[in-house]
Structure formats: structure tokens, C-alpha cells
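Quick one from the shared queue. A colleague (R.T.) flagged ABC transporter ATP-binding protein as missing a structural entry in our internal table.

Convert sequence to C-alpha cells.
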Amino acid sequence: MKKILDVDNLSISFDTYGAEVQAVRGVTFDLYEKETLAIVGESGSGKSVTAQAVMRLTPMPPGKFVSGSITFQGEDLTKKSDKQMEAIRGKDISMVFQDPMTSLNPTMTVGKQISEGLIKHQNMSKKQAFQRGIELLKLVGIPNPERRINQYPHQYSGGMRQRAMIAIALACNPKVLIADEPTTALDVTIQAQILDLMRDLQDKTGTAIILITHDLGVVANSAHRVAVMYGGKIVETGKVDEIFYNPKHPYTWGLLGSMPKLDQNAGEKLQAIPGSPPDLAEPPKGCPFAARCPFAMNICDKKMPQYTELSESHHAACWLLDERAPKVEQPEYAKV
Ligand code: SF4
Ligand code: MG
């Protein structure tokens, strides 16, 4: 498979109340055609900031590009002008957000919103764009698309709005689709339908997807690879099976432990990870998870661990993987 996106050593900060919050600290990952990469982490881990940076949507100021490169089809997006980015955004790279109500325009019909991109990027006439809009609504499973296309977002249900957002995002056959918590606001049944839909559409179109989520539960059936983020860094990355069945980072263990299990008894408590994420205005010198990690050693808060290669696709940054460290087995609670 062809590499389509290459993010290297990306760092993004925000100036807030005189402090510099280092939201993303040296993040490196790549994305291949036809694959879904899930970026998983708690709120404040830097996952949304990373996604926005790829779209060059970081508000600047207060945001600040500190370092790194974002190579898309061989070109560094960090070097593009705003105008050049406008031609890429919505056409080659598009985004689906958590809450379609805030990203859909309430004063425009859904049809008009789908047509916009097609007229702008694909040189379609209004009539062609409208026809294509009906096809797209059908593709994302909206019933009566001929009638629905003339309606406003508030006339759609939550699930239908999310489908419409996906239709708009896919209108120009983007190479990369970034979905930031696309199902978080939806109930569980609709959530599953939307994730199925995204997978189906990927099979048909080959679009590569970056799926941003705090919920490891949605990852298992939706992603090929996973990057686990904590404190502005990727702490573990691997194929879905490697992350679920052979996780190596204590934070990943914590996330797996806080996931509801199929055989969970009603009333049985989930293992939430105690403590709170680090203050990224003063990021820890060492491992970002040290203050919450049940396995922390002396060195952990002093020095950032390097990535250990566990397989060609599986990497984790933890001192436990150093050969001098005591052997610690994956705890029972983290087993899925
Ligand atoms: Fe825990 Fe240390 Fe590993 Fe960080 S480096 S996850 S503190 S054991
Ligand atoms: Mg977010």
C-alpha cells in the first residue's frame, strides 16, 4: 500500500494566559491508502489538535506551529499558503466533526451544502452538483434523498445529520478523511451504524481515514492501526490486534481496563485510571504518564523513554521495555 500522509515530529503549542501549553509534543505517524488509523486518548491528550494541524485548522494565534512536517502526497502542508490549503481542504483532505449541528450551516439546505464543494473543487454545474448530492445522500443511507436534499439540518435526526456530514466530506472523493469523535454524540445503535457506514464507504472509495476517539471500544471493529496518545505524545502504536492482545504501555493497559467487557456483570465497576493528565504548560521531563502509572520507577519522571520496536508495526515508549527493568506482565484487568 502507498503511504499517503507522513507526519514527522509535529509540535503545536498554545499561548494561554501567559503560559505556553505544549499540546502536541513531537508526534510522528504515517497513514496508508485504504487504511484507518485510530488516534486514541483522553481529552487533552493532543489528538484533536493533531488532527486540526493536518487540516491546517489550528487557530493561530493562540496556536503556534513549533516544529515538524506534514507530508501529503510528497508535499509539506506546513509550507503551504492559506490559499493553497483552501484548495486541498474539502477536496483532498476533509473532516467530519463530533457535532454536525455546529459544523453544518443551519440556514442552508443540505443539498446546497453538499453542492458547494462540488461546484468549487470539481467544476460541476449547479444541476450536476445537485444530482451528485442526491447520489451521495443515497450512498450514506439517507432515505428519500430527492426530498431530503431540499431540507435544512434541523429537519434531520442526529444520526442523519452525521450521515449528511459524511456525505459532504466525501463529496469530492478525498484521499484522507479525518473523523474527530464522529459518533460520540450519538446513541450506541446509531454509533455502530455510522462506523459501519464509514467502513463500507472506505471499501468503495479507498479513502484513508484518521479516526480520533477517546473510546477504545469503537476502535476494535473500525481501525487497522491504533496510535495511543497521552500528554501530547504517542505512547504506543501498533496494529489493532497488537494493541488489544499484546499491549505494552501501562497507559494502554489502563485504557483497556476502563473499557466495558462483554462478560461484565451489571454493577461491576470499571477500572477508571486514577489521577488526571499532566499540565502541558509545564510538561513532565520524563514519561508523561509517570504521575499516574502504577508501575513507575525512579527513572520514569526524570527521563523520557525512547520507543522500543516490538514488531515492525508495534512501538511503545516505556521504561519497562528497557532490558534492565524488572519484568512486569500485562495485568489481568487489561486483558480483553
Ligand atoms: Fe509507567 Fe515508567 Fe512506563 Fe511511564 S515509563 S508508563 S511511568 S513504567
Ligand atoms: Mg477533541
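Residues 249-250, 287, 289-290, 293, 295-297, 300, 305, 318-320 surround iron/sulfur cluster (ligand 1) (CB under 6 Å).
The radius of gyration is 21 Å.
Added to the table.
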